[in-house]
């Protein structure tokens, strides 16, 4: 499609775009002139309004930042608390593991002592040695 193809109404598209551009520029110029006139006629009221807007914006941002900081601090506290709970749980599991190792070692030692005693008793009987009293 070239820049001068007609639209369904038969108008030239580039001419329509040119007209739209011109209307847009005229409207922008009209608004610019209106703003300049307003600034010339009431500069103090506009300045006061701008200052009020600045203050409102500053207060709004300050509140939002404060809320975000509080939320972040709360999240950090919660994470610290959770990390502390996890560390305590890890310490407890480690202590339980060590206690289980001691119990297993002690139980194994007692079992081996009993087996040794039984083997000695059997060996003594086979050798014809009088039976020793049990110390269990």
Explain how this protein is built.
It is a single chain. The longest helix is centred in the middle third of the chain and has 85 residues. This protein is mainly alpha-helical and 136 residues long. Helix content is 84%, strand content 0%. The radius of gyration is 47 Å and the shape is rod-shaped. The mean pLDDT is 85. The protein has a domain of 56 residues.
- How far is it from the N-terminal to the C-terminal residue, by CA? 108 Å
- Count the E strands: 0
Secondary structure tally, helices: 2
Mean pLDDT, to the nearest integer, reads 85
Low-confidence stretches: none
What is the general shape? Answer: rod-shaped
Q: Strand content of the residues, in percent?
A: under 5%
Q: Determine Rg (CA atoms, Å).
A: 47 Å
Given the helix and strand composition, which structural class is it? mainly alpha
For the sheet with most strands, the description reads:
none
Indicate the percent of residues in helices.
over 70%
């Amino acid at each position: 499609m070239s820049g001068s193809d007609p639209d369904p109404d038969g108008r030239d598209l580039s001419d329509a775009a040119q007209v739209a551009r011109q209307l847009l520029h005229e409207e922008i110029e009209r608004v610019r002139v209106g703003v300049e006139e307003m600034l010339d006629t009431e500069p103090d009221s506009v300045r006061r309004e701008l200052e009020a807007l600045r203050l409102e914006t500053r207060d709004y941002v300050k509140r939002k930042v404060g809320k975000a900081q509080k939320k972040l601090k709360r999240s950090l506290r919660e994470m610290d608390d959770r990390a502390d709970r996890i560390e305590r749980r890890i310490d407890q599991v480690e202590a339980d593991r060590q206690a289980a190792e001691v119990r297993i070692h002690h139980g194994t030692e007692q079992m081996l002592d009993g087996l040794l005693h039984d083997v000695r008793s059997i060996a003594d009987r086979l050798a014809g040695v009088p039976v020793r009293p049990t110390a269990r």
